[in-house]
Amino acid sequence: AWRKLACKIATKQDDQDIDDRTFIAFYGTTPQIVYECWEKIGGKFEGRPKHLFWTLMFCKLYLPEDVLCFMLGTTRPTLQKWAWLTLEQLAFISLEVVIIFRVFMRFFKD
């Protein structure tokens, strides 16, 4: 489900999936970490999952806001509002997610 939503946001196509390499290229992390982040921040503010993806694209791609707004089909004030609110929530959980990521990577290395 997360991959489908990520693909829809990044490419505006509902009917295809996105592979790990492309997912990381757009969002800077894996679908598992995005899921963990949403699980931790989802109930703490009124944002939606798409706002988390917008924020990750905002940070990873570092495009001019006008270009990103055009890609996402939103306005500049809306992008700014949700990107910064979501980024603030991510900052609160960042250490927790880093620990989860390290455990996750250790589990799959062995």
Structure commentary:
By secondary structure, the protein is mainly α. It is 76% helix and 0% strand. The protein is built from six helices and no strands. The protein starts with a helix and ends with a helix. The mean pLDDT is 86.
Secondary-structure content class? mainly alpha
> How much of the polypeptide forms β-strand, as a percent range?
under 5%
Distance between the termini: 27 Å
Helix content: over 70%
Annotation, overall tally of beta strands: 0
Pattern of helices and strands:
HHHHHH
Q: What is the average per-residue confidence, as pLDDT, rounded to a whole number?
A: 86
* Low-pLDDT residue spans: none
Rg calculated over all Cα atoms: 14 Å
| Count of discrete alpha- or pi-helical segments spanning 4 or more residues | 6
Largest sheet: none
Morphology call: globular
Please provide a brief summary of the model.
This protein has 110 residues and is an all-alpha fold.
Topology:
Elements: H1 2-11, H2 20-27, H3 31-41, H4 49-61, H5 65-72, H6 76-109
Helix pairs in contact: 3-6, 4-6
